[in-house]
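Notes to self after the Tuesday call (sharing in case useful).
The group wants a holo model before anyone commits to mutagenesis around the pocket. I volunteered. Ligand is inosinic acid. Logging inputs and output together so the record is complete.
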Amino acid sequence: MPNSLTIVGVQWGDEGKGKVTDLLAHDASLVVRYQGGANAGHTVVVEGRKVVLHQVPSGILNPEAFCVVGPAVVVDPDTLLDEMDTLDLAGINVSPDRLAISRQATVVLPYHKRLDTLREAARGAGRIGTTGRGIGPAYEDLFGRTGVRLADLCDADRLFARLDALLPERNAVLKFLGGESMDRNSIALPALALGARLKPFLRDTGEVVARHMAEGRNVLFESAQGTLLDVLHGTWPFVTSSLTVAPAAFALSGVGVPAHGGVLGITKAYTTRVGSGPFPTEDTGEYGEWLRQKGGEFGATTGRPRRCGHLDLPALRYALRVNGVTALALTKMDVLSGLSSVPVCTGWRFGDTVIDIATPDLFSAPGLQPILEDWPGWAAPLDGATDMADLPVEARGYVERLESTLGVPIQLVSTGSGRESTVVRSDPWA
Ligand code: IMP
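Result:
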């Protein structure tokens, strides 16, 4: 029985990780967000009420779970505090006895967002399509060993010294990109005020995670974005700037690899992507538009329309490999109702060669032709089904065929946005 479960998106993000985390947090004593920042938008619907979380772990909605924002998350203190206030107003307890934030987490500062936007503009047609939340520039500071950490927001002298050391260079780049430079105090003074509010939450979160694991309690690691957006293993350079893959969860959270850890890959029943970059099974025609409207495929963070297309088995097989996925959750099955057949990409053709597992460089290789097979569709809506027996026979067939083709059990099938609209075929914690 695993006492750690890592929830990882096996596509380009937006797979429904928020809903699955919220569901599984019910049996977790700890939920850890291990990477990313306010670029994520994890949507959770509880009793018809929609909550979009950007930085606070989706486990916060389970009153029994303790939540951690780990050291590899880049924290925008302003939006984090707004999110905490919104949760508070909704009656959800976000006090320090429910939430700990790593003292080591890198702070997203106003110049990061400015640099993000200016760099995107400078890239022109080659733009990545970032969320504009300053994620790339903040991670550059972390890995360039020059950034500001949350603990620095509680020590004015240290913050001033750090900003004095880094701002001249950042301002030169801002100027080079046609932007306005920033002065130390306009950044430091509001940041210190935010730091004072965050101080009670700041901890050595690695110690918290290690303790829960040593006590054999259930720990859920929640990732953001998706495998194909991973900075190393994704469709680089059209990726985010963090390691999103499941094995990173432990290193980034400051604990060793547990002996019995499950990895639950989350995939939609079709594929979406936001921003630029290769997407071999994209449908830019009527079918893609139908998926976008029916699936409400608009970004939870930016509101941008998501690109939509067919489920891509070679891409999924690659993602299963890099994450060490032990089981899958299939989301948004209800969106496919109403189709007489569902096109699924079963292989990639390059001339006479057929590939059934992707590699990162092949995503943008010339001559790639997705091989589409029509799997039987179903007419009846699935809304809210909680038992496989309630699904039309073709929908059941879709799940079973996918499971046997990929060789991984599909433990959860999501049939609607609410927590309760889920078929639990087997318990991922069991
Ligand atoms: P960044 O993370 O804002 O730098 O954006 C880099 C790429 O990742 C862009 O294509 C974004 O659209 C994409 N991205 C970042 N966060 C998410 C997410 O939570 N869901 C889906 N795509 C994302």
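Two things stood out.
Residues 13-14, 39-41, 128-131, 133, 135-136, 224-225, 229, 240-241, 274-275 surround inosinic acid (CB under 6 Å).
The chain has eleven helices and 20 strands.
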